[in-house]
Design brief:
Blueprint: H1 2-17, E1 29-30, E2 34-37, E3 40-44, H2 57-70, H3 78-82, H4 85-98, E4 102-106, H5 109-119, E5 126-130, H6 135-143, E6 147-151, H7 156-166, E7 173-178, H8 190-199, E8 203-207, H9 222-225, E9 235-239, E10 249-253, H10 255-264, H11 266-269, H12 276-291, H13 293-312, E11 324-330, H14 332-344, E12 347-348, E13 351-352, E14 362-367, H15 374-391
Helix pairs in contact: 2-12, 4-12, 5-6, 13-15, 14-15
The chain binds pyridoxal-5'-phosphate.
Length: 392
């Protein structure tokens, strides 16, 4: 084991030397627009709590009451003793909200994505993934029995070429994309992708982690926003840790697909079911998300204000109409410097570096939420402009 330990040490040193070492941050307090680290308050532009639901009093109360009524832990995997009535209520509510025939709950989006790709494909099948797919999708594809290829980001012509070249009647092809890409904040043309998949008899698998709650009527997500019916997709995964503000995830699809996952998805069958208290909090949060349109309206206002100010200040932002706004800096060291300079101005904005993004595309990934005020956003853009000049 001495050699193994030396290898681990070497890898850690190398990561540090390349300015790529990440350090977890311990929050002393979290309040949506603000967070506190080591007794210092910061404006928060790095979280995924887009609708400000993580701290909503109704969600917190539902969590506490859920624990008292149903228990803190589920006490088992779902097919043994882990499924409580609150899990069923949550599934029913998701189907009613999103229009799926059935949904299945998972402990995280990472697990759900792995289950989706690994369980729904076989050795003769083909997976086609967008080049910027989340790590959980890439790992799911690697660990599946299917062969897989990647197409250029949101590039329908490249996807068409792969379909023309590799799609055959002997195998099932699944195309995998995200509703909102987590590091760029942009969206694919889902209607065109559905059409393409139909033309080639392929299925479309969607990860809507960053679209659920944020996009579409009642926050139904990216597909709803683009007029794509849930039944046009083979399967959709979304999690409760972003706009819903809690944690856990689900897969929604036809009854047959979910019945199959319930029997064969190892991440579901062999894992402790979600905490019932957490399900009660998610249920309360989903109700607020559906009914409180003002949260999405305010979020959109904040997104538009940020873009207008950032473009006027000549900042290099990527095209995106979602809460994820990327200011691409290039090299990892510069991104870190800029993030540190902002920290000194009490703005929390994490630098995103390889391997999360491609080498040379390190960035500050601004995430906006509906709790931000116009002055917060002005302060952010002014500081970004001022310090961006110093480091380039
Ligand atoms: C696009 C995308 N898919 C999946 C996940 C994983 O979800 P979770 O954090 O619930 O494991 C994330 C979150 O990091 C994500 O951004």
């Amino acid at each position: 084991m001495k050699i193994k330990l030396e290898q681990l040490q070497q890898a850690l040193l190398q990561r540090e030397a390349l300015q790529l070492k990440r350090t977890p941050v311990t929050l002393a307090r979290y309040q949506g627009r603000m967070l506190t680290v080591a007794s210092k308050d910061y404006l928060n532009f790095s979280g995924n709590d887009y609708l400000g639901l993580a701290n909503d009093p109704k969600v917190l109360q539902a969590y506490a009451e859920g624990a008292l009524q149903y228990g803190a832990g589920s006490t088992g995997s779902p097919l043994i003793t882990g499924q409580h009535s609150i899990h069923q209520q949550l599934n029913d509510s998701l189907c009613d909200w999103l229009g799926f025939e059935r949904t299945l709950l998972f402990s995280s989006g990472f697990a759900a994505n792995q289950a989706m790709l690994m369980t729904l494909t076989d050795k003769d099948d083909l997976l086609l993934l967008d080049r910027l797919s989340h790590a959980s999708l890439i790992d799911g594809a690697i660990h599946s029995k299917a062969s897989f290829k990647r197409f250029g980001h949101n590039d329908l012509a490249a996807l068409t070429k792969l379909l023309q070249r590799y799609n055959s009647e002997q195998q099932n092809t699944m195309v995998v994309t995200e509703g909102v890409f987590s590091m760029d904040g942009d969206t694919p043309n889902l209607a065109a992708m559905v059409q393409l998949c139909q033309d080639y008899n392929a299925g479309l698998l969607l990860d809507d982690a960053h679209g659920l709650g944020v996009l579409g009527d009642q926050g139904r997500g990216s597909a709803a926003e683009q007029g794509v019916a849930p039944s046009a997709l083979f399967c959709t995964m979304a999690n409760f840790g972003k706009a819903i503000g809690v944690g856990g995830a689900f897969i929604g699809a036809s009854k047959t697909v979910i019945d199959y996952l319930e029997q064969f998805a190892r991440h579901y069958v062999y894992s402790t079911a979600l905490s019932p208290a957490l399900c009660a909090a998610v249920l309360a949060s989903v109700n607020l998300c559906r009914t409180e349109q003002w949260r999405r309206d305010k979020l959109q206002q904040n997104i538009q204000l940020f873009r207008q100010l950032a473009l006027a200040a000549d900042l290099p932002i990527l095209a995106s109409n979602t809460p994820i706004q990327a200011v691409v800096v290039g090299c990892a060291e510069k991104a870190l410097q800029l993030s540190l300079a902002l920290k000194q101005q009490q703005i929390w904005l994490t630098a995103i570096r390889p391997p999360t993004v491609a080498t040379g595309s390190s960035r500050l990934r601004v995430t906006l939420n509906c709790m931000h005020q116009a002055d917060d956003i002005k302060q952010l853009v002014n500081n970004l402009r001022k310090h961006y000049d110093c480091i380039t």
